[in-house]
Design goal:
This protein has 432 residues and is α/β, with parallel strands linked by helices. The protein contains 11 helices and 17 strands. The chain has 2 domains: 265 residues, FAD/NAD(P)-binding domain (3-Layer(bba) Sandwich), CATH 3.50.50; 132 residues, Rossmann fold, CATH 3.40.50.1860. The chain binds flavin-adenine dinucleotide.
Length: 432
């Protein structure tokens, strides 16, 4: 039987990528009423802690820790004008971060933070992390650390990758009133390994929350705060968190866990369920297999799960395909290649310059600054400095001249450049 060929989907914007940059770009475009199609796999979001870093460590060799990210970014603009953060104004970065956190708040995953300051909170290994925006379920942890208040850290016996005693032993010298308590969950198989996702989904049932509170209660003592691994639900973390606060009679906070983390699953599922109602035609878990440009300037893209299933004709394309983990860039013997369109990649002269001798060299590695060079409207450039196509944009970690891991700016960079690229595209629409 002959299979009827599907009609191509026409749109103004095709967003390639469903990591933080792609999701933010689709959100900003939909809010501006632009007809948008989006495709991509999960990207790095599943690994993310849920914390939204903006700018936590200075770019360059000083490794200076940043308390006020706005001042840090101002300085960055004076010292590293090539950095992609320099393509977006401070007010655009603020609007971008607020836009994403407002969206998540309305979707039931509110964020908290200081207006102009990075917050500090404890990680699952007992180190202190600076970040800009924190899921509300983690926010009391910022206050507990600030006050060094009497605090109980709860460990679920059998849950991998989270040790309350390790956190306490690392922090005890500077936080004497910190205690650890291991508990058993009555409704979990006592012998088998425990998975954070199973526990998180289980806690969406009220009776399971009561059991958890009962198991914690005998250990409370004088604790003013209670810290738990990030397991408080997936779809209703706000409700689970609220109930535990009430049941234990004191503020409870989550501590981000090792990747893949529950907070990443929450983000992924929230974007995937709340962007389509805004009008984004989404093809999650789909890949763009090929892209070519017609004589009239439009792009034709073939997308599908394992092979092409759908054709999209787009007036504009935003490439948000990430770096090596996202598969936007591929490292080969001959050099680093942009995987989908073979765009020019700004990169070290040869492979021997990719890495320094020491893995943990404080100066970082040149390979982590490789990526796509863009003009001030986020359009990829040829080596001669001309734009590749006037209707092709790039955003997120695929951009050159930034090392988001070292500068603790993963979400900030992804979201800010997505905002800048969509704003540039809208300006181009007005101009044309
Ligand atoms: C372990 C880990 C921990 C992290 N922790 C934090 C943190 O604590 N705080 C923070 O702010 N940030 C953190 N981040 C970074 C953050 O998750 C951002 O996602 C990251 O900065 C890059 O976002 P991106 O969208 O540019 O790329 P990616 O997330 O890599 O997304 C790339 C997207 O492009 C898609 N793609 C690639 N090729 C194609 C194609 N041909 N067709 C269709 N789609 C394609 C991929 O499927 C994916 O959806 C962390 C990242 C990792 C890996």
């Amino acid at each position: 039987m002959e299979v009827a060929k599907k009609e191509p989907i026409a749109c103004r914007l095709m967003v390639i990528g469903a990591g933080m940059a792609g999701m933010a770009a689709a959100l900003f475009a939909a809010r501006r009423g632009i007809s948008t199609v989006q495709a991509g796999l999960t990207g790095e979001t599943l690994y993310a802690s849920g914390l939204f870093d903006l700018y936590g460590v200075a770019h360059g060799n000083t490794r200076e820790l940043i308390d006020n990210p706005w001042q840090g970014l101002k300085q960055l603009k004076q010292t590293y004008p090539q950095h992609p953060f320099c393509l977006v104004s401070t007010s655009q970065i603020r609007s971008a971060m607020d836009g994403v956190t407002d969206f998540l708040g309305h979707a039931g995953h509110p964020y908290a933070g200081y207006p102009d300051q990075n917050a500090r909170l404890i990680t699952s290994v007992g180190t202190i992390k600076r970040t800009f925006r924190v899921p509300e379920t983690m926010w009391s942890g910022v206050q507990a650390l600030e006050e060094k208040a009497p605090c109980l850290i709860v460990e679920i016996k059998g849950l991998r990758g989270f040790s309350a005693s390790q956190i306490v032993s690392t922090l005890k010298p500077s936080w004497p009133d910190l205690r650890a308590a291991p508990i058993e969950l009555p409704w979990q198989n006592r012998l088998g390994p425990k998975y954070a996702e199973h526990i998180a989904r289980g806690l969406e049932v009220e009776a399971a929350r009561r059991d958890l509170a009962e198991a914690i209660r005998p250990h409370l003592g004088q604790a003013k705060f209670v810290g738990l691994p990030a397991i408080l639900g997936i779809h209703d973390s706000k409700g689970v968190h609220h109930d535990l606060n009430q049941m234990l009679g004191r503020p409870v906070f989550e501590i981000p866990t090792m990747p893949p983390a529950i907070s990443g699953i929450r983000l992924k599922e929230t974007f995937e369920s709340h962007l389509p109602p805004l009008g984004v035609k989404s093809f999650y878990h789909h890949t763009v297999h090929s892209i070519h440009r017609l004589a009239n300037g439009r792009f034709v893209l073939e997308l599908g799960r394992t092979e092409p299933e759908t054709t999209v004709v787009a007036e504009h394309v935003l490439l948000a395909t990430g770096r090596f983990l996202g598969k936007g860039l591929v490292a080969e013997r001959q050099g680093i290649r942009e995987a989908l369109m073979d765009l020019p990649v700004c990169q070290p002269e040869n492979r021997s310059c990719w890495h320094r001798q020491q893995f943990l060299d404080p100066k970082g590695h040149a390979i982590n600054l490789a990526g796509i060079e863009v003009d001030d409207r986020f359009r990829p450039l040829n080596p001669d400095g001309h734009v590749v196509y006037e209707n092709l944009y790039a955003a997120g970690s695929i951009l050159a001249h930034q090392d988001w891991i070292r500068t603790k700016s993963g979400t900030g960079l992804a979201v800010a450049t997505a905002y800048g690229a969509i704003a540039a595209m809208v300006n181009d629409l007005v101009d044309s």
